Amino acid sequence: MSNERGDSDRASAAFCILNTPQLPPLVALWKIGLTFLRQLPFLNATFIKRRDMQTLPNPITSQTPISSICLSTDGTIHRRKTRPVPVGSLYIGGGHPVAVQSMINEDTLDIEGSVAAIRRLHEIGCEIVRVTVPSMAHAKAMEQIREKLYATYQPVPLVADVHHNGMKIALEVANYVDNVRINPGLYVFEKPNVGRTEYTPAEFNEIGDKIRETLEPLVVSLRDQNKSMRIGVNHGSLAERMLFTYGDTPEGMVESALEFIRLCEDLNFYNIEISLKASKVPVMVAANRLMVQRMDALGMDYPLHLGVTEAGDGEYGRIKSTAGIGTLLAEGIGDTIRVSLTEAPEKEIPVCYGILQALGLRRTMVEYVACPSCGRTLFNLEEVLHKVRQATSHLTGLNIAVMGCIVNGPGEMADADYGYVGKQAGYISLYRGREEIKKVPEDQGVAELINLIKADGKWVDPE
Ligand code: SF4
Predict the structure, then answer these.
(1) Which pLDDT tens digit goes with each residue over 197-227?
(2) 88 three-class SS
(3) What does the alpha-carbon distance between residue 84 and residue 439 come to, in Å, rounded to a whole number?
(4) Spatial distance between the Cα atoms of 340 and 347, rounded to a whole number of angstroms
(5) Backbone region of residue 63 per phi and psi (left: phi > 0; alpha: psi in -120 to 50; beta: other values)
(6) Which H or E element spans position 253?
(7) Mean of all residue pLDDT scores within the chain
(8) Which of 369, 378, 405 to mutate to test the pocket of ligand 1 (most atoms within 8 A of CB)?
(9) Ligand 1 centroid – CA 341 distance (Å)
């Protein structure tokens, strides 16, 4: 923040100096230069971004904003205690690893395509696969998809996503999948009434009774098959009566979920997971925190499915998802995650695993520690890191550090199992833990690192 202000102050000061009447040639030069630079698309974008950078208003509080949530200070994440909820052969919650899930984008009527897409996702580590089921024909197609998957591959935990007024569809598809996701805002869809300004308690409850009536057969079916349900609330599709009563707020999202939870509990059904998704990260974070507070107060321990919906694509889509999902996971909240990208679903899985590994919740790859490089760096760090990664990325479980110099490198490479550290021009040192093992010429560094790992019996050949 102070840097931003400093940069902008310096820019203004420079502009003031250059804009004084005593310096007309410089002013002219400045303006010509500026005009020229603004013709260059890349630089133009940079100018606009710097000029338009805003600091958004956020209240400052002296209290811990989330005092009821357990924030650990011992370097590990303490996960919220939840009940285990089955999804096929897996469990969500109950201390089980945070499960990674995604959703295929094939038409479910395309049996071959859907089976291949489910298999593709599962083979790269997606543990639960969701399929959209917008009609009864799609629900029936799930029977064939499941059969074909079992016959040609293996059982994969499957979730059916049911849409507007999906009660009959949900009831049918519950026979073929392990979990049914319903959206409380759409399950009994009431067309918005344009002239309406409020819901009376009687009207509110009347719709509640209708929901109970339509939800009951699905709940009974899932309960009797020991399958599960996700109550998946979306900020963008809250039911009108919830909007009128609680507003377009995290509270409205939470109340929407609680209404469905209570209906399930009335029927002795507890295989429930909850999701509260929004495309705005602060809303999604707030809704999940509030849900946890409410559940704690009510003695409920249902696991949470985390995701930032409509996160978009590319770098920013990944950043948004990581900001929302990572924040909550770091607070111990969350039992399964989906990163929703506007890209092929296969692209979502590495992001999920990256978030989980960065937080120390799961381990699926080598943990690399590398310094950012600076004037002391003794080799091309980016290039060497790339070479080290290429040679060792299959050694899941190891921590490997690549550090530019011995001044700070050994001390800062945390608890790495092995270190590759710049020693002097043309030479690097290899470390086992904090112990320097040998100095080798830089061009032999990667090969010698491999030899060291082999000598320790920790090497496996890549598949
Ligand atoms: S480890 Fe050395 S080279 Fe790397 S950033 Fe720190 S001081 Fe610079």
Answers:
(1) 788 888 888 888 888 999 999 999 999 999 9
(2) coil
(3) 51
(4) 10
(5) beta
(6) helix 250-266
(7) 87
(8) 405
(9) 35
Distance CA 20, CA 22 (A): 5
Task: Give 118-161 pLDDT, tens digit per residue.
Answer: 999 999 999 999 999 999 999 999 999 999 999 999 999 999 99
431 CA distance to ligand 1 middle (Å): 16
Structure tokens at 220: 């009974």
The residue whose two tokens read 């949470």 is 304
407: CA distance to ligand 1 center in Å? 7
Q: CA-CA distance, 233 to 272, in Å (whole number)?
A: 13
Q: What is the pTM of this model?
A: 0.84
Q: How would residue 49 be classed by pLDDT, with cut points 50, 70 and 90?
A: low
- Domain range 367-455, its CATH number among 3.40.50.880, 3.30.413.10, 3.40.1550.20, 3.40.50.300: 3.30.413.10
pLDDT, tens digit, 9 for 90 and up, residues 394-421? 999 999 999 999 888 888 887 899 999 9
306: closest CA among 338, 331, 280? 338
Of 3.60.10.10, 3.30.565.10, 3.10.20.90, 3.20.20.20, the CATH number of 85-358 is 3.20.20.20
Torsion, Cα of 159, 165, 171, 172 (10° steps)? -80
